[in-house]
Amino acid sequence: MQSNENILSCTEQVRVRFNETDPLGIVWHGHYIVYFEDGREAFGREHGLTYLDIQKAGYVTPIVKSTCEHFLPLKYGETFRIVTTFINSVSAKLIYRYELFNQEDQLVCSGETIQVFLDNNGGLCLYNPDFFQAWKDKMGL
Fold this sequence. Notes:
- This protein is α+β, with helices and mostly antiparallel strands.
- The chain is 23% helix and 40% strand.
- Strands 1-4-5-6-3 form a 5-stranded antiparallel beta sheet, with helices on one face. A two-stranded antiparallel ribbon has the order 2-7.
- Strand 4 (79-89) and strand 5 form a beta hairpin.
């Protein structure tokens, strides 16, 4: 169940590095998941929900599901933007949606990740941790 009362997103500019390309000169498909992480980290810095904040509160958030659809290639030296959107859910999880756009503003790739909360003992949290609920309240979610 999702709620879209308030949409939080972040945009990050990235340049394709040489080591991210395959012999054909295009970005190897596995790097798109790394770009998703770049988007999550930028989102966390902008909206006050970084991995360090989560760790400081006594939790970790492993990814339990990821999807990635490719539409156009990216090549070495190109810049692109990652739009990362937080999808609000009543469940104790972090859902992020990603859209990567090339310099011509064409959609290159889209995807989603789902992360769950584990406490310091590795236990799955069935309810929003207090710090996360406080963040959601502060953000109007």
